[in-house]
Amino acid sequence: MLDTIDCQDEKHEDVHPIISTIAQVIYDKSGKNVYAVDIRKMSTLCDYCIIAEGTVDRHVKAIGQSVQRELLVLGQKPIKVEGQQEGHWVILDYLNVMVHILTPAFREKYRLERLWDEGNIIDLKLESV
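Request: output the structure for the sequence above.
Response:
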């Protein structure tokens, strides 16, 4: 059963501000279907995963670049970036947070949410600009 974590909950302060910033940047760049999940109980790969989509490959690449720029301001640099050249699926690895930005076709094909369906969904509280 999925539980929901409030992104601004003091018990999960390690989630905020990085998760909030990533999600807000994606939203501000017109990214769609932003989904964040706490996977600490089921994965040793990372603690949190964010999945979102851009409309086409150029949009996916632009969102990935924007996330990297914004997190660099916070002193966070990804240890690994994959897919930035092709743009169908960009992966940003921030050690405890993994960001997946995909085109709708790739998101439908791979259905990453199903991998972590027992994780706790994070309530992102995104703000309109």
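The chain has one domain: 4-123.
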